[in-house]
């Protein structure tokens, strides 16, 4: 496994934009995932029948109003109205929109059938201390079924002192999802004091562990952040404290750790277009199934966001795989 | 979104009392809210068949005996007997009276059919410390159904360290309400140490976040306080620490953040008539659906309270909308 | 409401023993209480068919063995055997005996049909610290139904830091009682550090608040202690810190705060006969429905207790009301 | 009640070994206990059809492997194998063997029908701190029914800071036992910091309180330790701090406090034969129904244990009562 | 029981490799274990129909990705892909593979029918503090039934301050396993501050206690570590602080304490072949039923691991017992 040897951190991509060389790390095909008929039906809906298709996922999340508060909408005042994101998802032909029960019950009915829904089932505000990070349930798998959703989303704070409660809460979500054939997307976020002491929440150690936890606990899809190398990596447990991986290799590593859980790359804070598109291509090369970009899209004007979305579709077409 | 730019904080209203200019911010019509038949039936009952009608809400709360203790009744000793509030709601043709199970079971039967009931489902006393603010359940949605209520009320302390438990408790209320087609009114109150450190519970930051939380968690109606600008706003997270909004613009901002959750304005402590009526008109201009005034009404003598109520009806008639 | 003005603290009763002047504060008639048929049947059983009748209640509690330990029985060694209290309740024609499940299951069968039963559903020992006062369940409403009880009893520690759990536990009791038509008697006791800082558990502030909490949460009957004025009242919140009420006026105030929850006066520690009978008469004048005296009765010899009981019956006959 | 007056602490027994004078304190007959048919059937099985009979109980406990660890078995290595205790119970004709689910499921089937089973339902290890003493469930009443047990056992730590949880857990056990007609044996152990400060867990104050708690909460049988007078009794609450009772009178006192809960005397650590037999006789004189001796029996060789058991049978025959 | 006397700590084995002398401590036969038909069927499947057979168990665990993180896979990068372990279990003819729900749902279907499954039902990460060690559920017995597993695994942290919760969680697992006839394998791990103070988690005191706890709580199979003598044993409670047992005698002791719970020996960190094979032989001599070796096998290359596995099979054949 070559990732464990040191490389130049800025290794250039070997493929130009538009080249059709096969991705170096293929995505796991649906037929290998041991899916129940219900999960397979809904995943095929997301991966092939909507959005860019070809086995990819382009997801628009709008849970920031709960997670960060309305502050995130000031950059683009239109985005305060949830219809903005729904319309962007509809016009931009996203694979799905991901949001909480309130935004689903009050707005989704106008887009039902056009925009697939991932119902986010837990969340919290940023107001109280994050020391015991835990996201309580805001919705249920039954809500998702009733609303016609194609998947549910759940945030696990890997490493939090509240990890016990989190695992137990997730267990009930996973079981209900199994009962109803509902795919489960796990937002796998390292968090908490112990994480901070072992290299931080963006360290390869933490993200790599989080990817594996999601796989072990039964995620069908896992949302991961790009690991970010820093001086604090020296505090990570061995062998992570000695690794020197390029960002792309580090991400490829975590995709491998996620195994047969399909990987969505997180967008994070808004960045420039070239950086963003580069990240998408690298992620797909690494074996990711798709991206989940929020602020990077809906903090733009509608026209700008749709232009960027078309570029994303173009990239995704390069990575299309037939269903199997 | 012009609210995000600084304005003169005392911007005068552009409409005089009694003028019939259309409200600047229309209220969301029932037909757009994705309501189940049960919720729509009961909301129509409250918004059109009782009270001022025309899609407005005039709610009389009497939960202060639990929340503040009997101290609130000294200003008007008659108000200690819950019949005082029931009779005021009946004679003043309120849209609903909002109270806890004990006052519902022992008194409502004499007013059933005349005064719609919003059964408040959780509450607490002021005696123990508020540091971990949390309101435990005092009643259930099933109680509300049995008693013929048209909605249930629930207090969420947004930002409290006990927010986890609160969200989970609310989840069960929301689900039961969904099952029975019962509208949910959320008292969205910022509270707790972290709120105090970020500008306080009356800051625009806190109230705006609370409004969005109510929307995201699935409130049908949200009760909000007017944000109050203060020096502590400088401690709010960006961009709130730099905003300079007039009270009316600040309130208009939080109504927008509440999205398709209908907004009730809280009365708070008793104030003078002109100030009160001004607040009502501004609120309705901002897109509020109605008001929930307790001490401002039942701390007055019966005659005085009814006189004021008639003035409120007159204002509400200006804001009537046909059902849609 | 004259109670809020200062009076002489030792205002003498205006009626002599045996005078038949009507009580100044009538008790709420059953027909106004919004009772289900089951609750009404059982309450009529207690208020009219047993004990002194005429709408009054004379209750003998024997939960001190759990609440205080066997120490309370040393004053009258015969009282250690629960048959002593059962026989006293039977021979003294009490409205009911109130006790925990163990004493009900092992002894009640010998008195079934003669002595109505109030099954006390929660309790605790005095051994561990009272700082987080909370009484866990020891029995259930279903137990009460199975045993043929006519009511259940529940202790709420108003103001305790454990108030959250208490309210939630009470909710389940109240709901089960509703389901089975079983009246609920609430022992409403102010307790906890915050109460101590606001005037103490015997302050008018605390007792008055406790009375209202019981009403708001759905008590059918509330057991209250007489407020006791003290220097610590100055620490009570306004306006209580400035009130100067006679003991009788203070009690009349809390009876009003209890609204349509019928009031039982607590006996407390054993006192002399004149003081006791005076307290009973004052309580009934104030609108109480009856008394719940334990140690004041069963710490006496059988002959003495029965003599006193006859005097209590005589007083209660003065306050008889026809059912309505 | 003469116990409350001081006596000589070493008052000699007035009856010699083998004398047939009637016990001074008769045991409560089954017919007075208000038992359901199921409980009465099973108790009669234990009290009359097995063991010494005549309404007595000779119980062999083997829960020390969980409560103390394997250390207790070093004194007699054969005792490490649970068959040792089963065979002792079988050959010694014990009324029952008391143990946890693991020892029941894996060994009881070979002795089923010969040795009645008391399934112990909760327990803990000695490893973590005892400060918040609480024994979680290890089995259920349903397990007991399935295995053909004649009773269940439950440890309550009276006075522990975890008393709340304990009472609630016991409530569920008692209710299930009621539902299935299964007698409940309560191990009533004073425990915790507050107990230590009030005279200690062996003080008369603590044991007396524990006996009453077991009665009030619904125990059918209660296992009690002999109170042990010590200097720390001065720290017990009044009147216990001033009592000077002989060991026998102290035990007689706690048997009275247990009321209609049948009393089993605990053996405690291994002691000499004369002391042990004396304790048994005194206990039965005091109204105990039987004994529960573990280490005092199975820490002996098989021959020695059986010889002692025959002596116990002989004593118990003196105390035989006909069923009633 | 000779173990309780001191011996030379390095007592050599009296049998050479390949000798067919009977094991000194026979394993408990299935027919004596009081098993339900379902448990017996599944255990026979594991003990006789798969793996080395003859009543032995060779189990491959792959829960380290959750328990330790992906760090454990760096020694053999191929092992990061769970197929590596599945294929090793299949080609090496293991009795079972033990893993969590995510690895079962996504990979087991390709090996179903070939490799028996032990579904591990609880787990945690190493990230947060271990002070209150507790493994929350990650799967359920129903999951195991649905997937066709032949047993479930559960980790109990004996001695942890969270022992209460652990016992209660295990109770529910055991009950569900009883209901479905599913054998329960307990990972019995001493853990926590109190364990550390009493000789540590590898002390004979701690491991011996853990073995007995597993038996008492109802384990069908218990996974134990070899006790490791150290200076800290002096801090163990008597008589452990004075014991001087050879490693083999110490292990024989804990196998006896486990009684009729079948014993699996843990491999622990990777060690050399001679040491490993010696440990296996000693364990089987001591009465163990088999081994559960993870890192010692899958941290090797496939060829090396299979070669070692064949040696293990050869040893196990020496210890074959006919079913009874």
Characterization of this structure:
Five copies of one chain form a homopentamer. In chain A, strands 1-2-3-4-5-6-7-8 form an eight-stranded parallel β-barrel, surrounded by eight helices. Residues 1-23 of chain A have low confidence and may be disordered. Chain A has 324 residues and is an alpha/beta fold. In chain A, helix 8 packs parallel to helix 9. Chain A is built from twelve helices and eight strands. Chains in contact: A-B, A-E, B-C, C-D, D-E. Chains A and B meet through helix 4 of A and helix 6, helix 7 and helix 8 of B.
Mean pLDDT of chain A: 92
Using the CA coordinates, give the radius of gyration of chain A. Answer: 18 Å
* Spatial sequence of strands, sheet with the most strands of chain A: 1-2-3-4-5-6-7-8
How many DSSP H or I helices of chain A?
12
The number of E-state strands of chain A comes to: 8
**In percent, how much strand structure appears in the residues of chain A?**
5-15%
Low-confidence stretches of chain A: 1-23
Most extensive contact: A-B, 37 and 47 residues
State the end-to-end CA separation of chain A.
27 Å
Query: What is the 3D shape of chain A?
Result: globular
**What proportion of the residues of chain A is helical, as a percent range?**
25-40%
Largest sheet of chain A: 8 strands, parallel, barrel
Task: Assign the structural class of chain A, choosing from mainly alpha, mainly beta, alpha/beta, alpha+beta, or little secondary structure.
Answer: alpha/beta
Report the oligomer: homopentamer
Helices and strands of chain A, in order, run as HEHHEHEHEHEHHEHEHEHH
């Amino acid at each position: 496994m070559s990732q464990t040897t040191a490389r130049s951190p800025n290794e250039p991509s070997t493929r130009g934009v538009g080249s059709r060389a096969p991705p170096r790390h293929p995505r796991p095909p649906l037929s290998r995932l041991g899916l129940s008929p219900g999960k397979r039906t809904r995943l095929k809906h997301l991966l092939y029948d909507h959005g860019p298709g070809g086995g990819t996922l382009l997801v628009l999340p709008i849970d920031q109003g709960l997670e960060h508060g309305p502050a995130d909408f000031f950059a683009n005042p239109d985005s305060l109205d949830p219809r903005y994101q729904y319309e962007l998802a509809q016009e931009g032909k996203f694979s799905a929109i991901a949001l909480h029960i309130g935004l689903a019950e009050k707005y989704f009915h106008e887009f039902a059938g056009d925009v697939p829904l991932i119902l986010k089932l837990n969340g919290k505000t940023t107001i109280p201390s994050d020391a015991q990070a835990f996201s309580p349930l805001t919705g249920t798998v039954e809500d998702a079924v009733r609303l016609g959703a194609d998947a549910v989303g759940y945030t696990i704070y890997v490493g939090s002192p509240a990890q016990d409660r989190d695992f137990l809460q997730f267990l009930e979500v996973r079981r209900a999802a199994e009962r109803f054939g509902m795919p489960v997307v796990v937002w796998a976020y390292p968090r908490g004091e112990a994480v901070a002491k072992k290299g931080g929440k963006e360290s390869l150690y933490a993200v790599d562990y989080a990817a594996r936890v999601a796989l072990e606990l039964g995620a069908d899809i896992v949302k991961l952040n790009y690991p970010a190398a820093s001086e604090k990596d020296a505090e990570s447990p061995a062998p992570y404290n000695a690794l020197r991986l390029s960002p792309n290799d580090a991400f490829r590593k975590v995709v491998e750790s996620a195994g047969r859980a399909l990987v969505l790359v997180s967008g994070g804070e808004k960045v420039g277009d070239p950086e963003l598109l580069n990240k998408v291509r690298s992620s797909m090369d690494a074996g990711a199934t798709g991206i989940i970009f929020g602020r990077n899209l809906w903090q733009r004007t509608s026209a700008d966001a749709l232009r960027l979305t078309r570029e994303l579709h173009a990239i995704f077409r390069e990575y299309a795989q037939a269903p199997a």
